[in-house]
UniProtKB/TrEMBL annotation:
<protein>
    <recommendedName>
        <fullName>Beta-barrel assembly machine subunit BamE</fullName>
    </recommendedName>
</protein>
<keyword id="KW-0732">Signal</keyword>
<feature type="signal peptide">
    <location>
        <begin position="1"/>
        <end position="18"/>
    </location>
</feature>
Length: 128
């Protein structure tokens, strides 16, 4: 139980410290998946950007085709837009990233569980 608490505390601190980094990582993945970026560099574009939900995908229909839009008003002040194929590529990349993160967390937990508690009295022994 104590190991789980330590692992969760570590994960929480890494998550809080990596909020901006996570958004930047997400935007790197969007670009790698083929999304294009447009800066909100005019008052009209800034106003339009503010109408979109931040850091979430929306789908618009353009000429009978879905266009996926990701608005980032905080880091780049821009939108990313792409096709259904770009979105599918992005989803696959995110799946691979989550899988890699889970494997890393499992390896960390296994390493912690391999620690020799013998000299310390074990994790469940009362401290006197």
């Amino acid at each position: 139980m104590k190991l789980k608490a330590i692992a969760l505390a570590t994960l929480a601190s890494l998550t809080l410290g990596a909020c901006v980094t996570a958004t930047q990582n997400k935007e790197n993945m969007l670009a790698a998946a083929g999304f294009r970026m447009r800066l909100a560099d005019t008052p009209d574009k800034i106003a339009s950007l503010k109408t979109l939900p931040p850091h979430k995908f929306t789908v618009q229909n353009q000429n009978g085709q879905p266009v996926y839009i990701y608005a980032d008003p905080t880091v780049c002040g821009c939108i990313y837009y792409g096709t259904q194929d770009n979105y599918a590529n992005y989803q696959q990349m995110m799946f691979q990233q989550r899988l890699a993160n889970q494997q890393q967390m499992t390896a960390m937990m296994n390493q912690q569980m391999a620690f020799d508690y013998g000299p310390w009295g074990g994790p469940f022994m009362p401290m006197y």
